[in-house]
């Protein structure tokens, strides 16, 4: 179902992303995969920016959580979706939450990628 979230994000099917993420939350949080937890957070964050009344603060908070979860062993899909989230937040770059997320993303992106997988 986590992969379905990603597909629904691409289709901008925000209502279903948020509904399904709520259903998956308990399962994802119990997952041994920090990557899965990170990617689901990024999908939800993107959906929060796509909805009619964007929740920028919550989206950036989820983005920061996603980066933190993936910090020790990043994979390319987490890096890419993290950058994509920041690009989507362009209209709100003057907000502190977006600036803080951008700074965390910049620092994380400057770390060595020797441990990167996938």
From TrEMBL:
<protein>
    <submittedName>
        <fullName>Uncharacterized protein</fullName>
    </submittedName>
</protein>
